[in-house]
Amino acid sequence: MPAFVTFQAHYERTSAGWRATASDDGVAVVTVVCRTLAKARADLVSELARSTGAYGGSIAVDDDVALPKKAASALRGARRARELALKATAQANRATANAASELVGAGLSLRDAAYLLGLSHARVQQLTGVSASDAAGSDEEK
Fold first, then answer.
1. Nearest-CA neighbor of 125 among 115, 111, 137?
2. Phi, psi (rounded to 5 degrees) for 44
3. What is the pLDDT of residues 78-124, one digit of tens each?
4. Nearest partner of 132 among 47, 23, 124, judged by Cα
5. What does the angle CA 84 – CA 85 – CA 88 come to, to the nearest 5 degrees?
6. CA pair distance 119, 94, nearest whole angstrom
7. pLDDT at position 51
8. Residue 22: which of 10, 13, 12 has the closest Cα?
9. What is the pTM of this model?
10. Which residue in 63, 55, 65 sits closest to 5, CA to CA?
11. Do the beta carbons of residue 128 and residue 106 sit within 8 Å?
């Protein structure tokens, strides 16, 4: 058996719960019925491992969940929004780190840079890698 096996799984809501069917090249291999999607997927992987002799960690499952059109559309929109939010967060983190470095590099203390950025001085220190004693205009009040 190959080191890594991929199956296609189709999930469909029934009166008994979620019916999950795993197939390989279009041929059904395993079917389970569970109350939740997470349990159906977990049981599907366990049954695939048992029936194929493969270790559960070596089984990949491409999920296809049958949803009403409006629900599927809403799910795609939510996933897209989360993806954009993650990218925006990463961009904001890079911009903040850059600004912290520029502010401290321009001679501001860690506390002054922190005040301007709305961060703690400890976070500015983490972002810049500058120790308090190395920061220009030491942070200690005089």
1. 111
2. -60, -45
3. 999 999 999 999 999 999 999 999 999 999 999 999 999 999 999 99
4. 124
5. 85
6. 14
7. 86
8. 10
9. 0.69
10. 55
11. no
